[in-house]
Design a protein that fits this description.
The protein is mostly helical. Helix content is 66%, strand content 1%.
């Protein structure tokens, strides 16, 4: 009798994917990050910590020279930025009287609440489920990944729509395809936030940054002008670069690390069991009417923006970009989802009366309970951090360190981009960070021969690349709250470890691409934008 061969190791071990050194590094980041307390507790601790630190640094008299010109808004008479203590009488009174307004005035809160009123109608009517199934059930899996990253980048023209709509929708799309929903959310988050400065169109951030850059450039050249399209060529090219890099990181790093999705860890309400079913005839008819409703909304949008008399153009300058249309884009999100969701629901029978619409809105806001609690404490931390001037002081100190290196060749931009990326971890707003650091960086680099337009393009790489790994980013708490609906055990460390590969590859490849574009190929970063400046 032939003896049976020795049994191989268990299938689980034999089939377990090999974990390379990079994956083990991410596991370590996740483990360390998850040692942190619950995000709500963490922000509460940080808020208290900032108050205590402000008292210490205020007592020590910590101060740096303000790089902004004398007489500019916010500049002290003595030209210094000083640490402000919140442990004295004035500080304690300010905390007590501003606690409520810090919460209600936190910018992302209102945007999310308003947008979710509309998204709730589209979700409850079944429109989102049907639209997702129509788009993805027959699509190749990797094409879907590319489309999601690309859509995230393009959504930055009106930034809120990416955070509020696309990221949770990407999770639903991946789940419909039998893939890990967190990988879909990561791909969308990488496009929306990691690729924040890349786009095919000029967005609201472009004129804002150009204005700050121009003021900084005029410290050296009083007549210098920086236009909103200063970085347009480079940002268009960057759109395709970030789409490629973000897609490859999702497919080859993030998704394999996440592994097979375990539905037992999810909120049962978020798992739509019909997501893999083919569309019925009634649903197809509903999508047709939703499409007709969409055309009506788009026509209304065009009427308010495109004509010379468009009511939502800038009433003073006639500008279409820096206008009420884009500043109030969340209203269009609300209208879009209510109109299309109701049109779909009327056809399929899920929206019969106004009561159905109201119930849908109520359910949508009810799902944001954790986010609202988190925002209360996050808003306090952000407000305290701003009041104490510790963010501005750390930004100026970091910028001064780069200045002291004395480098003059194109390689200086690698250090400049890295410095901006590090500063972004503590000072999340692109415009706020640039308002403080541009008066140092722009004159410094102009004096060694680089144009303000080139300097601004480099800044945007550093600012965008680390958005996705810093809790200081305004929408980080929202992404975390939605991700926990797919994984109730998910912590800050898991989210940071999931997004860290995107940050690492974005900053490395995007920086190299910038140097190749500007100094290797000699291409301008925008129309009429020089690469060099002659002092």
């Amino acid at each position: 009798m032939t003896k049976a061969p020795a049994k191989a190791p268990s299938d689980a071990k034999a089939q377990a994917p090999k974990r390379n050194s990079f994956t083990r590094f991410l596991d370590t980041v996740e483990w360390l990050g998850n040692l942190l307390p619950h995000p709500v507790t963490l922000f509460a601790i940080l808020a208290v910590g900032i108050v205590l630190l402000s008292g210490l640094f205020g007592w020590l008299g910590l101060a740096v020279v303000d790089p902004r010109p004398a007489g500019a808004a916010g500049v002290a008479d003595d030209g210094m930025i000083r640490a402000v203590s919140l442990l004295n009488g004035d500080g304690v009174r300010r905390i007590f009287t501003s606690l409520t307004t810090n919460f209600t005035g936190f910018a992302p809160l209102g945007v999310v609440l308003v947008a979710m009123l509309g998204v709730g109608v589209a979700e409850r009517s079944g429109l989102l489920s049907a639209a997702v199934r129509a788009m993805v059930l027959s699509a190749p899996r990797h094409v879907v990944t590319v489309a999601i990253v690309f859509a995230g980048i393009v959504s930055n023209t009106a930034s809120e729509v990416g955070y509020v709509v696309l990221i949770p929708l990407a999770g639903a799309i991946f789940y419909a395809l039998g893939r890990h929903p967190l990988a879909g959310m990561a791909a969308a988050f990488a496009g929306v936030s990691g690729g924040y400065s890349a786009n095919l169109l000029i967005g609201t951030i472009d004129p804002l940054l150009a204005g700050i850059t121009q003021e900084a450039a005029r410290l050296i050249d009083p007549g210098y002008v920086v236009v909103a399209t200063a970085n347009w060529y480079f940002m268009v090219a960057s759109t395709f670069l970030i789409t490629l890099v973000g897609s490859l990181v999702t497919i080859f790093i993030v998704e394999p690390k996440l592994g097979t999705y375990d539905t037992s860890r999810a909120d049962p309400d978020i798992l739509d069991k019909r997501m893999m079913e083919q569309l019925t005839g009634e649903e197809k008819k509903g999508l047709l009417w939703a499409g007709i409703a969409l055309l009506g909304v788009l026509a209304l949008m065009a009427i308010t923006l495109l004509p010379e008399w468009g009511i939502l153009r800038n009433p003073d300058t006639g500008d279409r970009i820096n206008s009420p249309f884009f500043r109030g884009f969340v209203v269009w999100i609300l209208i879009f989802f209510i109109v299309t969701g109701y049109a779909y629901g009327r056809v399929v029978g899920t929206m019969k009366t106004d009561r159905d619409v109201i119930d849908a809105m109520s359910a949508a806001l009810a799902s944001l309970g954790l986010y609202i609690v988190l925002v209360f404490f996050a808003a306090q931390f952000v407000a305290f951090f701003g009041w104490t001037n510790l963010g501005a002081i750390s930004a100026v100190t970091g910028a001064q360190f780069l200045q002291d290196t004395g480098m003059t060749g194109p390689a200086v931009f690698f250090f400049f981009i890295l410095m901006c990326a590090i500063i972004n971890l503590s000072l999340g707003s692109a415009s706020a960070q640039w308002a403080v650091t541009a008066p140092i960086f722009v004159p410094m680099l102009m004096l060694i021969g680089y144009s303000p337009e080139t300097i601004q393009a480099a800044y945007r790489i550093g600012d965008s690349s680390t958005n996705i790994i810093t809790p200081m980013m305004s929408y980080f708490g929202l992404i975390l709250a939605w991700a926990t609906r797919y994984d109730k055990n998910l912590g800050v460390g898991t989210l940071i470890a999931m997004m860290l590969p995107y940050s690492m590859f974005f900053i490395l490849i995007w920086s190299a691409f910038f140097v190749l574009w500007t100094f290797g190929l000699g291409l301008p970063v925008g129309p009429g934008s020089p690469t060099y400046y002659t002092p």
